[in-house]
């Protein structure tokens, strides 16, 4: 089974052009069963992502948009080819900072239950510490499922507490550079799996199209569930 995470930057590429189809072609090349997206743009007050779904045949979606004070409306979306059994949004809002969410899905598989938690954390260290604690509290006692935690964690401090806490629960996460896409330096996008033995392979997708379609590279993990 393959899972992926991709910050699509509102579908605006490094050339400044908004192109949903271009980003979708990158996602289709991943051939992933589950794709967690961040910074998906919602054009109006609805959760409509029909343009994206039209470019991603075979996938259904769970959305978690937020509205910023400047009127921009964007957020997390999980695309999946697996049946969605349950889905919910987890509020990660911190003080007066930009609203943030995580999405928590249970997906139908022939074997062990699969739980996917996808998120996009804040820009300040204290904000990320608060948000990681909330997420860990939600998954701390789930030993029945294979739990995948993935997304854009905005964490570049390798010795920082958020990464240490996540490694303690899920095991180490490899440092895979994903940002900026055209010359990656920082490992902002990550995948963790519990139990760790379920994670088989893990790396960034570095095609020519992926270097242009967004300011992040997608990150892809293969699971043995």
Please explain how this structure is put together:
- The protein has 225 residues and is an alpha+beta fold.
- It has helices at residues 20-30, 50-55, 125-139, 161-170, 210-213; strands at residues 2-7, 34-41, 60-67, 73-80, 84-91, 101-107, 114-120, 146-152, 189-194, 199-204, 219-223.
- The protein is globular and about 40 Å long.
- The strands form two sheets. A six-stranded mixed β-sheet has the order 3-4-2-1-11-10, with no helix packed on it.
- Helices cover 20% and strands 34% of the residues.
- α3 (125-139) packs parallel to α4.
- β3 (60-67) and β4 form a beta hairpin.
- It has one domain (2-223): 4-Layer Sandwich (Deoxyribonuclease I, Chain A).
Gist of the model:
This protein has 225 residues and is α+β, with helices and mostly antiparallel strands. The protein has helices at residues 20-30, 50-55, 125-139, 161-170, 210-213, and strands at 2-7, 34-41, 60-67, 73-80, 84-91, 101-107, 114-120, 146-152, 189-194, 199-204, 219-223. A six-stranded mixed β-sheet has the order 3-4-2-1-11-10, with no helix packed on it. Strands 5-6-7-8-9 form a five-stranded mixed β-sheet, covered by helices on one side.
List the helices and strands and how they pair.
Layout: E1 2-7, H1 20-30, E2 34-41, H2 50-55, E3 60-67, E4 73-80, E5 84-91, E6 101-107, E7 114-120, H3 125-139, E8 146-152, H4 161-170, E9 189-194, E10 199-204, H5 210-213, E11 219-223
């Amino acid at each position: 089974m393959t899972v992926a995470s991709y910050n699509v930057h509102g579908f605006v590429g490094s050339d400044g052009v908004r192109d949903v189809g271009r980003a979708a072609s990158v996602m289709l090349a991943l051939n992933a069963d589950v794709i967690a997206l961040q910074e998906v743009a919602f054009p109006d007050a609805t959760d409509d992502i029909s343009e994206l779904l039209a470019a991603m045949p075979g996938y259904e979606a769970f959305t978690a948009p937020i509205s910023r004070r400047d009127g921009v409306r964007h957020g997390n979306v999980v695309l999946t080819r697996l049946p969605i059994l349950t889905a919910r949004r987890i509020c990660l809002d911190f003080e007066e900072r930009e609203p943030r969410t995580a999405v928590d899905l249970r997906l139908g598989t022939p074997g062990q239950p699969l739980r996917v938690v996808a998120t996009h954390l804040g820009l300040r260290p204290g904000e990320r510490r608060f948000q990681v604690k909330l997420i860990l509290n939600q998954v701390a006692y789930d030993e029945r499922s294979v739990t995948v935690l993935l997304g854009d964690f905005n964490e570049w401090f390798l010795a920082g507490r958020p990464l240490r806490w996540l490694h303690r629960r899920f095991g180490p996460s490899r440092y895979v550079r994903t940002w900026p896409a055209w010359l990656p330096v920082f490992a902002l996008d990550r995948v963790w799996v519990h139990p760790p033995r379920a994670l088989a392979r893990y790396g960034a997708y570095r095609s020519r199209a992926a270097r242009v379609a967004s300011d992040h590279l997608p990150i892809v993990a293969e699971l043995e569930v």
